[in-house]
From TrEMBL:
Subcellular location: Basolateral cell membrane
Membrane topology term: Multi-pass membrane protein
Any GO MF annotation of the entry: symporter activity
Protein name, UniProt field: Solute carrier family 46 member 1
Cellular component per GO, a single term: basolateral plasma membrane
Record keywords: Cell membrane, Glycoprotein, Membrane, Symport, Transmembrane, Transmembrane helix, Transport
Transmembrane intervals: 24-42, 79-96, 116-137, 144-165, 201-226, 232-252
Superkingdom assignment: Eukaryota
């Protein structure tokens, strides 16, 4: 995350001086270096390969049984509710993140490449601040309260951003989002505690499927909502996301 923030901040200045071509050459060179390092320098961690079928439905059945097993109906109900909360939270995160640059480029903000770089860095800074805040809050609060505080930070920041008309207001919204990512690991932890050790793999697969679905839904909903709401409120998608996050807050609470 630190390296990503440095690239984003420096990238804005670089694009301002030399345009877009040279920064993309750097991205290509870094990607090739990473690929070559992984191919020739990293050692294989799996010493003995186990035989596995190429086409099998066992993995899908394991995920299905995860939510339908009748042994612990209350745990399965909580599992479904927490999965719904995770789906809504990650969908809002993906959807709003895709719109920040468009929102900053338009009127009345009209940011240049330099300010967009700073704004993107502030967005990724929330990952670091949420990690530190999560550790500190867990020293004196339970997981439920930590998740609620993270959701409050997320909702408040999105509301401020939706109403922002000046650069200071926009950065104030970014500042309020400093704990916005704290709720996601807490929900993952709660999900993990609801299943047995033998079901952890199926749970991880289920969470990965939910994340993929979140990306698909977020792109379709928020990217369609933004142009449709320009004529009455440019920041409406962020306000819409804040309202949606009230559902995970109610589920966790």
């Amino acid at each position: 995350t630190t390296g990503l923030e440095s690239c984003i901040i420096g990238g804005g200045q670089w694009r301002k001086v030399q345009g877009y071509i040279n920064p993309f050459w750097l991205v290509l060179a870094a990607s090739l270096a990473a690929a070559l390092y992984a191919a020739f320098c990293l050692q294989e961690s799996v010493e003995q390969r186990k035989p596995a079928k190429l086409l099998t439905l066992s993995h899908y059945r394991a995920v299905y049984r995860l939510y339908t097993a009748p042994e612990h109906p209350s745990s399965r109900r909580k599992l479904a509710l927490y999965s719904l909360a995770f789906f809504l939270l990650v969908t809002v995160h993906f959807g709003t993140k895709d719109l920040f640059v468009l929102y900053e480029l338009g009127s009345p903000l009209c940011w240049a490449a330099e300010l967009i770089g700073y704004g993107s860095a502030a967005t990724y800074l929330a990952y670091l601040s949420s990690l530190g805040g999560l550790r500190l809050l867990q020293l004196c609060l339970g997981d439920t309260w930590v998740a609620e505080i993270g959701l409050i930070s997320n909702i408040s920041g999105l509301v401020v951003i939706s109403l922002a008309t000046t650069t200071p207001q926009m950065f104030t919204g970014y500042g309020i989002l400093f704990l916005s990512m704290a709720a996601t690991p807490v929900i993952r932890s709660k999900l993990s505690k609801l299943v047995s050790e033998t079901e952890q793999g199926a749970l991880f697969a289920s969470v990965a499927c939910v994340e993929g679905l979140c990306s698909l839904v977020a792109t379709g909903v928020f990217n369609s909502l933004y142009p449709a709401s320009l004529h009455f409120m440019r920041g409406f998608p962020f306000l819409f996301g804040a309202v949606i996050l009230l559902i995970p807050a109610a589920v966790i609470g």
